Amino acid sequence: MAEIFIVGICIILLLSYVFDITSKFTKVPSVIFLLALGWFLNQVGGLFNIIIPNLNVILPILGTVGLILIVLEGSLELELNRSTVNVVKKSALIALVPLVIIAVSFAIFLKVEWGIPYKQALINIIPFCIISSSIAIPSAINLSHEKRQFVTYESSLSDIIGVIFFNFASFGTVISVGGALYFSAQFLLMLLISVVASLVLAFLLAKIDHHIKYGPIIILNILIYQISKIYHLPALIFILFFGLVLGNVDELKNVKIMRNFRFTKLTREVRHFKDVVIEATFIVRTLFFLVFGFVLKTEDIIDQSSLVWSVSIVVAIYVLRVIFLKLGKMDLQPLFYIAPRGLITVLLFLSIAPKDRFPYLNESVVIQVILLTTFIMMLGLLFEKKAKQRQTAVVEDESNEAS
Question: What's the predicted TM-score (pTM) here?
Fold first, then answer.
């Protein structure tokens, strides 16, 4: 039995690798294939009465590790200099404002129409407001550098802001000015921890001469993240900050206290560390979405009673998205379509206490919103592919006529 299980996992990981390669040409996110494959395996297991243990237990674990690695991978690719200030501002604005508007407006609606406490309403709606970096970042790999950079910043900041907002809404019994000040202090504390821990880890990466070094650095990232989560600190800030520090090593040369640092060796180590993170992210992301697809229930996917809620949330997402992309003077194609919900939505939804859950925002709504936004993103990427093909054809025709 163990041998069959190992063979199955290897085949699935290789299939995921094929999905990753073919997505460059098909423009269909590999996440779609993984979810479909997980669901299909579940159906096959049911037909042959194969007993599968409860995989819901490992879903949050895979999701947490996957989130850390995906944000780390994305932040390692980001450049921080004067030329990126504008895109950082725009991505932060577009990540923050629509999230707050959707959360607050839906929470007010739930309070007025259904009479549930405003705090409880916020807790239930915030998970749906957060862009999934675990889906958006890998899907943007074939976009131009500027668009890929925007997607990485926006989705990573959306994760961070969303988690902070969710923790704030969950704090105490009521939302108050005191709670806001408390979370501001937490944010500043986490920022200080991020600065110190990132510099220490960067120093270790450059100094460790042992042949095993990248694994312990990744483990320390997960450890610091999880300890910060235990104390309800915005832990993703550390992951993003650490990735930015390593990804912008050259910028540290201008810092006085870092002038005697061996940057040549650190730059080489960072390059190898990136490769390890990319490989690890691929495996964990594959397993998470495969397991998530496996635990999907067919009745939840096609539950018509949940469609009103799902479609309402999705419409609100894209209406506000087009408004703010236009205000930010960003190219709508294909950025308008890249607003998927996914891993972080699942993690936050699972963390809501049963007594605080609003019955109509249930598992069916979560699944439908994730599938709808991912499908819309897939269509947008397909349109982008066709637009590029037409543009290439026009350029070729013009060059032929000129010759």
Answer: 0.82
Return the percentage of the chain with pLDDT > 70, whole number: 89
Separation between Cα atoms, residue 366 and residue 354, nearest integer Å: 15
Element at 171 (helix H, strand E): none
Q: How confident is the prediction for the chain on average, in pLDDT?
A: 84
Which whole-number Å values give the CA distances from 174 to 117, 182, 191, 274, 356, in the listed order? 9, 13, 26, 43, 13
Cβ atoms 16, 279 nearer than 8 A: no
Q: Residue 81 gets which letter from DSSP?
A: S
* Type of residue found at 138: P
Tell me which amino acid residue 144 is.
Answer: S
Phi, psi of 218 (to 5 degrees): -65, -40
pLDDT at 397 exceeding the cut of 70 = no
d(CA 310, CA 372): 8
Cis peptide before 334 (omega within 30 of 0): yes
Rg (CA), the chain: 22
**C-alpha to C-alpha distance for 292 and 53, rounded to whole angstroms:** 14
Buried/exposed code over 280-298 (b: 16+ C-beta within 10 A; e: otherwise) = bbbebbbbbbbbbbbbbee
User: In 3D, which of 83, 97, 105, 104 has the Cα closest to residue 157?
Assistant: 97
pLDDT, tens only, 115-128: 899 889 999 999 99
pLDDT tens column, 361-377? 998 999 999 999 999 99
